[in-house]
Automatic annotation (TrEMBL):
Keywords: Transferase. GO terms for molecular function: transferase activity. Residues 2-109 form the Beta-lactamase hydrolase-like protein phosphatase-like domain. This is TIGR01244 family sulfur transferase. It comes from Sphingobium cyanobacteriorum. The keyword Nucleotide-binding does not apply. Pfam families: BLH_phosphatase.
Length: 525
């Protein structure tokens, strides 16, 4: 065969014979596209014959006949649909290859301003996106896969609690994005701006269009600092900090170290937020340091949470209450931070009482703030969104409820599990195998049980290891004799301090599915 490559995903050639199909497959092509009408030549095999051989060899096939010298817009549109639906790379043929090349040009496949096509397109190159891409490529190396991600830096965000506690250096939690993109994946350094699911297309902020066979959406969650008037200007000085930002976690450590007593406030907004235990983690670790330095006795520590309970899974509350009592923390339920005045060191909270909602002003010497969190705008305004604004998916398969070729995971999807890195780590292999099944025209084959983990750092050296799934069901990874997750444990601290960071960098992001192999549908857990 004399093959002419037009793009990385499309090549053309002259008339194929049945014996050529196996050679095309061996050359790495995953689909054959016939542009030559049946009956043009005496020795010409029919499209049905070539299609049968292609399918028997595991290749995709499409028939888009077009008459040489009379190519129409309808032909170009049919060519576009075929190219978007077939797994790439595609080998198109006609009598000489010229007609197939012209049709590709008319369909926009050769125009760099028009849509590039990928078998699997991932929106988001954070924990969920990189882990899913790596898991997919471990299973099918020759797939055409791209990751849309605008950021140059990648962060191990669970480490920011430890940065704020003076345990980790902030640089320990940051690496370059380029070095983490899995081999075999293409990095599209841009931001997604819109979804056109009926056209199997994603629009980028630079007006490029990307088409896909299967789409995976995992761009994370947005920290809405602007939702609290005065907060953006106050952050990083006047005693106002947050472990939810890379550049502020070191300031938390400095504030806690320099604190000599007074009033320290810790806030938690309404759900959903990522790592719902993180607001408390900052508080407990700060109190432990103040206890050790003798400052705690001179301190008024308050926890203001918009929620009605200390933690959403009751089994872990008794252990946490032991530390609330030990540190003398004043709990304020149904207390939502709505405004902050940094120079005046005053925080305004809305609190419900029998007469409605009242505004309460609290002075502070330091305050650790967690901002409200929402789905990204380009998701909330898209056809993919649920009523909550997050990507609407089936909780078990993580497939979109209305688009069978779209999946979502991580903080951006609508599942009711806790939004944690541990959840994304468990979801990634499930989405990987289900996305590959969808690419092959098959239904989902794996299921997610809602697992999430929140290592609650109650003091330096001890953690309450909360592990639970949908409905608050306890899902411990270890037997009780080794780690009882409902009680503080030194082994759990070792897990977070020493074991989990390398598991993240060298396991999860490399497609190594240690303890998170996907649960296949129809098999016993």
């Amino acid at each position: 065969m004399d093959i002419k490559q037009l793009t990385p995903t499309l090549s053309v050639t002259a008339q194929l014979m049945p014996a050529d199909v196996a050679q095309a497959g061996a050359a790495g092509f995953r689909a054959i596209l016939c542009n030559r009408p049946d009956g043009e030549g005496a020795e010409q095999p029919t499209a049905a014959e070539i299609g049968a051989v292609a399918r028997a060899a595991g290749l995709g096939f499409a028939y888009v006949p077009a008459v040489a010298g009379s190519l129409t817009d309808a032909d170009a549109a049919a060519m576009r649909v075929a190219l978007d639906s077939l797994p790439g790379p595609v080998l198109a043929y006609c009598r000489s290859g010229a007609r197939a090349e012209k049709l590709a040009e008319m369909a926009g496949a050769l125009n760099s301003k028009d849509a590039a096509h990928y078998d699997i397109l991932i929106v988001g190159g954070g924990s969920a996106g990189i882990a899913t891409a790596a898991s997919i490529l471990k299973r099918r190396r020759n797939i055409r896969l791209a990751i849309i991600e605008p950021s140059d830096a990648h962060y191990y965000q669970p480490g920011w609690t430890m940065v704020g506690a003076g345990v980790f250096d902030s640089s320990f939690t940051r690496r370059g994005e380029a070095g983490l993109i899995p081999r075999g994946a293409e990095w599209i350094k841009a931001s997604a701006s819109a979804f056109l699911p009926d056209e199997k297309m994603v629009m980028l902020d630079d007006d490029r269009r990307i088409t896909y066979g299967v789409l995976i959406v995992c761009p994370g969650i947005v920290l809405d600092w602007d939702a609290i008037p005065g907060l953006p200007d106050a952050l990083g000085h006047d005693g106002v900090t947050s472990n939810y930002r890379y550049d502020l976690a070191p300031y938390t450590n400095r504030l806690v170290k320099q604190f000599k007593g007074g009033r320290a406030l810790f806030t938690q907004p309404p759900m959903p937020i990522k790592c719902a235990g993180a607001p408390q983690k900052a508080m407990y670790l700060s109190c432990y340091r103040w206890e050790k330095s003798g400052v705690l006795a001179r301190s008024d520590v308050q926890f203001h949470t918009a929620g009605a309970v200390l933690f959403g899974v009751p089994a872990y509350v008794p252990a946490l209450m032991d530390y609330v009592d030990r540190y003398g923390i004043h709990l304020n339920f149904g207390s939502k931070l709505v405004e902050i005045d940094g120079p005046a060191k005053t925080a305004i909270f809305e609190q419900a009482d029998g007469d409605g909602v009242k505004r309460v002003a609290e002075r502070f010497d330091m305050i650790h703030v967690v901002p409200p969190q929402v789905a990204p705008d380009f998701i909330r305004t898209s056809p993919l969104a649920s009523a909550s604004g997050f990507v609407e998916v089936d909780e078990a398969t993580l497939r979109h409820l209305r688009y069978s070729d779209i999946f979502a995971l991580g903080d951006a999807c609508s599942t009711s599990n806790a939004k944690t890195m541990a959840a994304a780590r468990k979801q990634a292999p499930v989405v990987a195998v289900n996305a590959l099944a969808a690419l092959d025209g098959q239904p989902p084959v794996a299921t997610y049980d809602g697992y999430g983990s929140c290592p609650l750092t109650v003091e330096a050296g001890k953690i309450v290891l909360a592990e639970f799934g949908y409905g608050g069901k306890l899902m411990p990874s270890f037997p009780d004799w080794l780690i009882d997750g409902t009680r503080p444990s030194r082994l759990s601290w070792l897990l977070k301090d020493t074991i989990l960071p390398p598991v993240y960098w060298h396991g999860m992001l490399k497609g190594r599915e240690w303890m998170v192999k996907p649960q296949m549908i129809g098999t016993r857990p």
